[in-house]
Amino acid sequence: MTDEHEASQRKGSFVQTLKAVAWSFFGVRKSSDYAQDVAKINPVHVIVAGVLAAVLFVVGLVFLVRWIVTSGVAQ
Question: What is the pLDDT of residues 32-57, one digit of tens each?
């Protein structure tokens, strides 16, 4: 088996992956937790969770800016 195939067969849950991606957005992670994530989580889940988190982040920023502009605070 190739390394890529073995990595995609990891049994880490999608919730574990979401937590790891959330911590990565903050840029704070213990090295022991990082090593545990690398050993357990599925790389495909990381890609999906990363794209979802990025989309939610951008949508959140757009709504925040729209709210500030329409509320009159930014006059």
Answer: 877 887 788 888 888 999 899 999 99
Q: What is the pTM of this model?
A: 0.67
39 contacts 9 by C-beta, under 8 angstroms: no
DSSP string covering the chain: --HHHHHHT----HHHHHHHHHHHHHT---HHHHHHHHHHS-HHHHHHHHHHHHHHHHHHHHHHHHHHHHHTTT-
What's the mean pLDDT when you consider all of the chain?
82
Please say if the pLDDT value at position 4 is more than 60: no
Q: Token match 């925040």: residue?
A: 64
